[in-house]
Amino acid sequence: DAGVIQSPRHEVTEMGQEVTLRCKPISGHNSLFWYRQTMMRGLELLIYFNNNVPIDDSGMPEDRFSAKMPNASFSTLKIQPSEPRDSAVYFCATSLNPGPHNEQFFGPGTRLTVL
Amino acid sequence: SQQGEEDPQALSIQEGENATMNCSYKTSINNLQWYRQNSGRGLVHLILIRSNEREKHSGRLRVTLDTSKKSSSLLITASRAADTASYFCATENFLTGGSYIPTFGRGTSLIVHP
User: Fold this and answer.
1) Closest CA to A49 of A30, A65, A63
2) Which residues of chain A neighbour B33 with C-beta distances below 8 Å?
3) How far apart are CA B21 and CA A16, in angstroms?
4) Nearest-neighbour CA in chain A from B55: distance (Å)
5) Do B45 and A104 touch (CB under 8 A)?
6) Three state DSSP letters for chain A
7) For residues A17 and A10, what is the distance between their CA atoms, to the nearest angstrom?
8) Among B43, B100, B103, whose Cβ lies nearest the Cβ of A99?
9) Residue of A56, A103, A108 lying closest to B42 (CB–CB)
10) A45, A55, A109: residue with CB nearest B99
11) For residue A68, what are the β-bridge partners?
12) Tens digits of per-residue pLDDT, A100-115?
């Protein structure tokens, strides 16, 4: 298995533009997590899916952020409109199921820069 | 929700020395996990210790858990330059509906000088 795949790896955009980040989970993993990492705030959980259903989106900063998981092999995180303060590294991680003994497998991340 | 707090924030040592990082948390846990993040990469799972375990080993890694003090430590013995990375502890948070999700601290940045 290739692991968790994220695209693009780097994204530079201008303020106000729509940004779509993509994630392909490890086959068979039922839980998918979107994180944002910055120097100031560390690693923040944005949203968590289980069996393609959003379970907890309390970490999504505001309505400009939305996430979908239309099927077990694909998820998107969209920011519309983007702002400079959205600049961060966005990680997708997956696990077999949400149990407390399951490790998470992280993708390589998407480094987003909003000018 | 609770979040593990790593200490120290940064650690700089010479190759061959041991590195010790600590994690403290606030509420009872079922398990605690340690992850490593190399610069520009995603986090990689290192080891999981359950609440009924006091110590666990994996290669040069030794993890201890003291539930009475609500703390854990990660010891890397005979460190190598390749151990340079950030290290995170993750405690689980219980969500309504029966799900547990790991919550990460801010990490300890370890630099091992060759």
Assistant:
1) A30
2) 103
3) 41
4) 16
5) yes
6) CCCCEEECCEEEECCCCCEEEEEECCCCCCEEEEEEEECCCEEEEEEEEECCEEEECCCCCCCCEEEEEEECCEEEEEECCCCHHHCEEEEEEEECCCCCCCCCEECCCEEEEEC
7) 15
8) B100
9) A108
10) A55
11) A76
12) 667 899 999 999 999 9
**Cα(A44)–Cα(A88) distance, integer angstroms:** 11
Q: B67 CA to chain A: closest CA distance, Å? A: 16
Residue B92 to residue B20: CA distance in whole angstroms: 22
Query: Across chain B, what does the average pLDDT equal?
Result: 90
pLDDT tens, residue by residue, A32-66: 999 999 988 889 999 999 999 998 888 898 899 99
What SS3 state is found at B93?
A: strand
Chain B: nearest CA to A70, how far in angstroms?
Answer: 21
- Kind of pairing between the strands at A10-13 and A110-114: parallel
CB contact under 8 A, B41 and A107: no
**Residues on chain B touching A109 (C-beta within 8 angstroms):** 40-42
Strands across the sheet containing B19-24: B5-7, B19-24, B71-76, B61-66, B55-58
Asked if B60 contacts B114 with a C-beta cutoff of 8 angstroms, the reply is: no
- Mention every residue, 6+ apart, whose C-beta is less than 8 A from residue A84: A15, A114, A115
- Token code pair at residue A22: 């993509």
Contact (CB, 8 A) for A48 and A92 = no
